[in-house]
Amino acid sequence: MDFIQKHIWGLWLIRPKLIFDERGYFMETYMKEEFERRVGTIDFVQESQSCSVCGVLRGMHYQQGEAAQAKLINVLEGTIQDVVVDLRKDSNSFGKYETVELSAENKLQFFIPRGFAHGFLVLSEWATINYKVDNVYCPDAERILYAGDKDVNILWDKRCELWKQSEKDRLGSSLREIEVQL
């Protein structure tokens, strides 16, 4: 596996090594020892999947306080624009975002430490996303940063200009509003 440190400290893009032959391919998607040597000790306790159609924008979600989650994201089918915003108050990159394209074709994985809002936009006809997290989901601790917040100014992919969002995502808070919540 290749581990690529992204511009914002703590974010990692992981490229699994693929072994191809006439039957197809094989890849290791997670190796605890190698992951911990590169990224640090993370105890993944839950794995989930979601499937969404083209234009769905989920996020920007984060868990607050003791319920915060680190995530390892990969796409099983389709293509997404995956985006995170740094909400760590002591970070030099507070309020900055990072974006990567994840797809079933490129097989990249994105590691997101605790302290980030996370969301994605589906760019293909549909996409299936897999998440490993180090803390179970806690509805009472969930918060949402509005994906269109002008202070963060995320450059969303233009292939899907009409977003399909849940009501709670459309009503997410601005970066200025969430500063007091963290």
From TrEMBL:
Catalytic activity: dTDP-4-dehydro-6-deoxy-alpha-D-glucose = dTDP-4-dehydro-beta-L-rhamnose
GO cellular component, one term: cytosol
Residues the record marks as site: Participates in a stacking interaction with the thymidine ring of dTDP-4-oxo-6-deoxyglucose: 137
GO molecular function terms noted in the UniProt entry: dTDP-4-dehydrorhamnose 3,5-epimerase activity
Active site: 61 (proton acceptor), 131 (proton donor)
Tagged with keyword DNA-binding: no
Pathway(s) it belongs to: Carbohydrate biosynthesis; dTDP-L-rhamnose biosynthesis
Enzyme Commission number(s): 5.1.3.13
Top EC class for this record: isomerase
UniProt xrefs under Pfam families: dTDP_sugar_isom
Biological processes, Gene Ontology terms: dTDP-rhamnose biosynthetic process; polysaccharide biosynthetic process
Keyword terms of this UniProt record: Isomerase
InterPro entries linked: RmlC-like, RmlC-like_jellyroll, RmlC_Cupin_sf
Subunit comment: Homodimer.
Its biological purpose: Catalyzes the epimerization of the C3' and C5'positions of dTDP-6-deoxy-D-xylo-4-hexulose, forming dTDP-6-deoxy-L-lyxo-4-hexulose.
Sequence similarity: Belongs to the dTDP-4-dehydrorhamnose 3,5-epimerase family.
Full protein name: dTDP-4-dehydrorhamnose 3,5-epimerase
Origin species: Azobacteroides pseudotrichonymphae genomovar. CFP2
